[in-house]
Give the backbone structure.
Amino acid sequence: MKAVIRDATPSDMPQVLHCIKELARFEKEPDAVAISVETLLEEGFGERPIFHCFVAERSEEIVGIALVYFRFSTWKGRTLHLEDLIVTQDQRGKGIGKALYQRVIQYAYEQGVQRLEWVVLDWNQGAIDFYEHSGATLLKDWYLAQMEPHAMKAYLDRNT
Amino acid sequence: MKAVIRDATPSDMPQVLHCIKELARFEKEPDAVAISVETLLEEGFGERPIFHCFVAERSEEIVGIALVYFRFSTWKGRTLHLEDLIVTQDQRGKGIGKALYQRVIQYAYEQGVQRLEWVVLDWNQGAIDFYEHSGATLLKDWYLAQMEPHAMKAYLDRNT
């Protein structure tokens, strides 16, 4: 039976979180997932949702997710960011990732955004080849900068 | 007279666009700015604003901008992305960029986000040093992937 790709509902969120945590365990960072089901419900289904989630369902089980949200480019206008595309380990190699990827591209195109964007690790050659073959362009001369709350606090304490 | 950092209003948008276009000309991509004042008004001040803009004002003139929006990490929850921080050319070297940067950090901290993030070109050593000194961490092993509308269309045509 093929997996069905559909919009996630609030009642999917426990299984969605399960997918996120499984991936974190696989990446040897089991404690990195600080969010809860409540976080997903608040941020995805509240008064002002900041993300949209697709799920792949097979036999009433969530076997994959794709999570996207809008961003804004001062050159291009509204863009769509693909934050995560996950297929549970025992369901890989069945075309589920590709079906989710295609749904995200369709959504981006329907929404009329000027760009779909995401990030990929520079050593993940399989993914890089797949993305480039699908028509994506890779920008290799940017670094991601991140500041955590404790660093924000320290900076503000030093400068105010 | 010091520049004042404040939230942008709809009536600032023509001058904000002017800053964006000046930077694009400086970067030798004068035609890259596809957005209009209407885009900024719709996306920043409509029913569901997707960005927040700060401006630096001196003598009733906008001399710098910082544009931010929320993102969502499946590990961390809500984060804030700094999309652009611009100081007009003839006003550089006066601490305006630093004042905007500090305001953005303060905003991120007040909003309780789990991370402030942005990107920087890998050859821009002056900026990299400034960011690292301020407490940011740079991730150097990611590529940015982008897909334009014509490539979305081509992918969908091939796969549906």
